[in-house]
Request: fold
Amino acid sequence: MTTVPQRPPLVRSSDRMIAGVCSGLADHLGLPVKYVRLGMVLASFAGGAGLAFYAWLWVMVPTADESARRNARRPASPIAPAVSLGASVPSATTPAGTTHAAPPYAAAFPNAMAPDTAASDAGAPPKAPSGQVPVFASWFSLRRIPYGKEILLGAALLVVAAILIARQFGVNVPLGTLIPAAAILGGAAIAWMQLDETRRAGLVDKTKADQAGGWVRLAAGLALVVAGVLVMVSGSGSWEQMWLALLASVAVLGGVALVLLPWGLKFWKDLETERSARVRETERAEIAAHLHDSVLQTLALIQRRAGSEQDVVRLARAQERELRTWLYRDDAKDSGLLAERIAAAAAEVEDAHGHAVDVVSVGDAVMTDRHEALVQAAREAMHNASRHGGGAVSVYLENSDAGSEVFVRDRGPGFDMAAVPDDRLGVKESIIGRMKRHGGSATISSSPDGTEVRLRLPAENGDKAENRNEEGKA
Amino acid sequence: MSTGQEPRTVRVVIVDDHAIFRSGLKADLDSRIDVAGEAGTVEQAIAVISEVRPEVVLLDVHLPGGLGGGGREVINASAPLLASTRFLALSVSDAAEDVVAVIRAGARGYVTKTISGPEISDAVVRVADGDAVFSPRLAGFVLDAFGTAPAEIADDELDRLSARELEVMRLIARGYSYKEVAKELFISIKTVETHVSAVLRKLQLSSRHELTKWAAERRLL
Reply:
């Protein structure tokens, strides 16, 4: 709290009665939301200033989600540190803005907590997701009233009742102006809310069911506005004139639409082209950034270490691996699975000893503690193979319903298992012992042509090892 | 198979868009191989192959030019020559769809570009003799695509591998050479080659669309 409190960005909040303008404004200004709402209502009576202001903010201020998304579109940070000689997995793959990671108290103290949240995290909106709000309801009694919309509706009905009563007592209320005006306002509100939601839905997912409801609402809003405008303009409620006016206005609208249609389509197409061009450009920038941080750096390093063959090979392998991961990896799908862990272990060994470790894997399995042991044992076997084999190491991982098997093979001179002294823990403890403790087995066969370690981990009850290959066929 | 046969030379054409790689590969190939031509694009490759009529074409999977189909397009265009000219695909790409696509187009084998000089020479000679060349990775793809369970008796034989074929594929995936596979299974190298060719045939002819779907879906290493 040493720095000057920074204001949270002005966004429309998801905690809303109509469009979230007031609560967003309250957060931004650091005022209780009820005062803002009250002020807005009072200002509405000053010649409709409040209404105009509200509408303006509604159109211009993005929702919290939109704002977060916009911030998240910032150029991605370099995917991975250049040629990290440690087997570092690309971090920071989740865009900051998409997680609603804002701490819950940020909702309760929107202003006070701002320095932490607003300054540090690019996208996190200073609003908690709706589920967390009720805890703090006691802070502002008006803040989160249950049935807020219903109360609003009730208030509107009360106003109508008051007007009717006033008429009974002979007060001259200009109903002919009030009703169409109310209709226009109501229609516009419905249509605008709709705009908000389609925008959100369009960005998240396009479900047809939602769209149908949206169209109905749009049509209802439009009908209300048109009817209101017509009544207002024609100045009388007679049906005859209404129909004529309606017909005329529809004809005019149709004519205008006909004239503007090609222009509108062209405009839309241009917009689409521009948008896709921008997407491409962003992608290109991302690729360029990645290449710069990885491939170009490695090439520079290779030129400087051209004398050492082993260094060059190591650098090239590390870079190749990193690039392949970047190009082909589907990080939504296979993170934390066995095949990936084995590949990571192989990368680590490759970096440590400078000999290629080629991994071929068939199927995949979900990691468990037992699989963790399998990975550890496999890593130890790869280390041995790379250290003593003195050449490329082949690793083969096969997962099936029966379990998982890993084969690690090198082309070294081989060794005699019986001749390995008992105090050498590498093979006996880290590989054989570890596999046995977890219900698996390890066999080592060595000949002058090379050594092969075979690790077997039977499936537990047959259902733990999920064979993705079989799954894909179903 | 690789040594001790009659000392003949195999005429090859190298197709790769990187001149550096072509010259490096030429230097790596041993005396059994005679490089009769080179090409850098799809069009050049098709022209050179039909003119030179080599026994083996060392073909990069990713090639510029043509309709954008790369090595697959070259094989398709040279289809009339497939009886006398054999294709060995050579790529830096490990992507399953690349590998499977070029094999299904008619290539007799697939090796990665990091393969050593003697190994690639052996592979060329083997392909020239009508055998198939499987790298560990290709064997892994095959096992992944066909499944690791052996074929039932009444099963559609093109869609499954026999128990013996599975064994051979597994050993190749584990990094065994054909000779080592033969020793391990107590069979002759010729038998190993027969099994591998049978697997290649299944890979090329199997109509199960899962195979291509599988390849397209998993862009695994």
